[in-house]
Amino acid sequence: MFNKKECVAMLLAGGQGSRLYALTQSVAKPAVPFGAKYRIIDFPLSNCINSGIDTVGVLTQYQPLVLNEYIGNGQPWDLDRMSGGVHVLPPYQKASGSDWYSGTANAIYQNISFMDRYDPEYVIILSGDHIYKMDYDKMLTYHKQQDAACTIAVIDVPLEEASRFGIMFAHDDGEIYDFVEKPKEPKTTLASMGIYIFTYSKLKEYLIANENDKDATKDFGNNIIPALLANNERVYAYRFDGYWKDVGTIDSLWEANMDLINPKIPIDLYDPSWKIYSRNPVMPPQSIGKKANVQNSVVTEGCYIDGNVEFSMISNGVTIEEGALVLDSILMPGCVIKKGAKIEYAIVGENSVVEEGAQVGSRPENVENRDEWGIAVVGHNLTVSSGSYVKPKQIISESV
Amino acid sequence: MAINMGSVMGIIFANMHDNTISEITKSRTMGSVLFGGRYRLIDFPLSNMANSGVSEVAVITKENYQSLLDHLGSAREWDLARKKGGLHILPPFGNVEAGLYRGRLEALYGGISFLKASRTEYVILSDCDIIATINYKPIVNAHVESGADITMVTNTGVYTSDVVSTSTVVTADEAGRVKGVLHKPAISGECTISLNMFVMKKSFLIELLEDGIARGHYSFERDVLQAKVDELNIRTYEFNEYFSKIYSMQSFFKANIDLIDPENSRKLYNPRRPIYTKVRDNAPSKYDLECVVKNSLIADGCIIEGEVENSVLFRGVKIGKGAKVKNAILMQDTVIEPNAVVTNIITDKDVTIGENRLISSSEVHPLYIGKGASI
Fold it and tell me: Which end of chain B has fewer beta carbons closer than 10 Å to its terminal beta carbon, N or C?
């Protein structure tokens, strides 16, 4: 028997993250490096343990190797437990056949037996592509107060961005009466954060019903939530007003990294009461050389820097040689930027090498047609050879 | 035939040489002295043993070992939280009659039942005063092949009297057989010093201990190495890679500062043999708009708004706006408030240097500011 758990977390980490292109060719999106020493999944995992949730199922499907290895036994997040802890849940073969996860709801449905083992009262559904710090326990308390079947975390977004999200319509008391997935002409700005708390008995009931519906797409936003609303179940909106960022695109991934450098953005990673944990790379401190110039940047262990770095995010084990220039960029773990190379408004993937004199990206003011400008991206384990130029907005997944 | 490192036990003396940097070891062991931005001295022998395949390590303590226990925890970071073997702490086994141990022999004798119970065949003894990346495997193999009773790791070089007078010095023949042993002699020049690491058969060590204690001996250097130099086959194993030895406040300061030079740090830190330490889960370090950082070693969790030159910043150090830090070793969570100027200093953990303060010392005698002080 397993100990009973009041609340179990299910983290959807199977998405391909195809909008991150070269950065997710060989790793699942939740395992993409972020903020110099983290990977995206560190944020929901740390939120879980900091909120007192010690049982987490991580649903993986796409390119799970790096992610599985990274999560390991869950020890860095204090999720190596005798009872509970973190469990990686890939799709598996059953007596009556085997299926890939065909949608978010289907993925959870296929793991009902995992949740059942802990006999939970509540289940929180999370996704592995958001950067935020949130106390799920407060949301759970709200869910209990409202005696809800489902509580959806929502955040106010600018009206012009609202069409990218699932938009809620709620009464003043928080009860949701309508929901539109990615509306063309949004009428409110209450966006779903993709975080749901369900009373487990209701979740199970609706998952099974959804699974039996041949026409359903087996998705929370498209099926489960509309079905709850159609049956007049108590569905409530939980307002969150902290920092929250979806990092599903190159631009938003770059912006979210830059937000960590900006002192005006309210996400504090230095707060000892809500640490974001990560698997430690075991490297010596960062070495800043005699010729180096580092300003307005975030740097972590194992780096050797002798070049110029401004407004950039420098991950573990990066080398930046003398005379190299790194501006407004993200260098992922193990990158090497050789002498005189220039990196501007770019993301350079893990262990990639930019040879002497090569250039990746450019400032927007250097590009005549602003539509042609964007963040340049070099994928993982590539080489940008001497004299090559990776243009703004260009994304390379093969060495040049 | 190569030895299976699973048959080798490591023994680390956490308290030896405490007196060489007595100010820093006032409330901690030599092994738990902070070093190099994010390490404690014991991380080096412990990681070296773990990386060499040693899976059973005993740490012998004497006094002030609370910080050491806190640092080591279950030894998971060194991959030594094991069902079989793993890390064992041997606190002092003093009794009313004997009091605390006086030397290496008594210290080891305190753990003799542990030694006897272990299934390992060889032991590596190490102190915490040498900072190096060492693979013990070839040393154990050389020991077995040579048929020596004791193999001691040594380095031959030109040494000043302050190093030699805190070391065990040996003379050896061309084959490496030790012919003479001097303990802390007042000499200088070219000599072969012991790096305080020894390999021997466990059963041989137990014999030495039982015999020695029966005769009232307690010093390994004097009562074994020196007294039995002719009788025993004692051999040297020359270690010629990068290392530094902590034998005084100045040498501690220099060993830290030396690692700022990437040439040195690349020699010490081998990515295939990482030096492990307790994970503190700090955020990465943040460099502010107006900061100037040159030639320095910065650990995670620092927030730098002022100027830093030729310095080592440990985890969680904060440098305020307009502050100037030069030739400094600032240990964990030190705060240099805005416009303060510090030169040639070592601050222990949690030190705060107040706004506009000016603290300066000479490079030869860096000023040490004790744990938790607020100036």
Answer: N
By CB atoms closer than 10 A (0-12, 13-18, 19+), residue A272 is exposed
pLDDT digits (tens, 9 = 90+) for A292-345: 999 999 999 999 999 999 999 999 999 999 999 999 999 999 999 999 999 999
Q: Give residue ranges of B with CB < 8 Å to any A CB.
A: 36-38, 76, 259-260, 262, 265, 268-269, 271, 274-276, 279, 281, 283-301, 303, 312-313
pLDDT tens column, B103-115:
889 889 988 999 9
Question: CA nearest B300 in A: which residue?
Answer: A300
* Number of alpha carbons in the 13 Å side-chain half-sphere of residue A335: 33
pTM over 0.90: yes
What is the average pLDDT across A46-55? 96
Q: DSSP letter string over B185-249?
A: -S--EEEEEEEEEEEEEHHHHHHHHHHHHHTT---HIIIIIITTTTTS-EEEEE--SSEEE--SH
Of A292, A300, A309, the CB nearest to B284: A300
A269 touches chain B (CB under 8 A): yes
Alpha-carbon distance of B324 to A231, in angstroms, equals: 66
Is A282 at the interface with chain B, CB within 8 A? yes
- C-alpha to C-alpha distance for A129 and A12, rounded to whole angstroms: 9
Contacts of B134 (CB under 8 A, 6+ apart): B48, B52, B153, B197, B239, B241
CB-based contacts of A288, cutoff 8 Å, min separation 6 = A294, A305, B293, B294, B295, B296, B297, B298
Distance from CA of B283 to the nearest CA of A (A): 6
Minimal-distance CA residue of chain B relative to A260 = B286
Complete DSSP assignment for B239-284 = --SSEEE--SHHHHHHHHHHTTSHHHHHHH-BTTBPPP-----PPP
Q: Tell if the CB–CB gap between B265 and A287 is shorter than 8 Å.
A: yes
Asked if the Cβ–Cβ distance from B281 to A275 is below 8 Å, we say: yes
Tell me the residue length of chain B.
Answer: 375
Whole-angstrom distance, CA of residue A21 vs CA of residue A61: 17
Secondary structure letter of residue B7 according to DSSP? G
CB A326 within 8 A of CB A307: yes
Nearest to B316 by CA among B337, B331, B297, B295: B331
| B133: DSSP letter | -
Find tokens 């992610």 and name the residue: A67
With tokens 């797409």, the residue in question is A217
- H or E segment to which residue B144 belongs: helix B137-146
> Which domains can be identified in chain B, with CATH numbers?
5-268 (3.90.550.10), 286-369 (2.160.10.10)
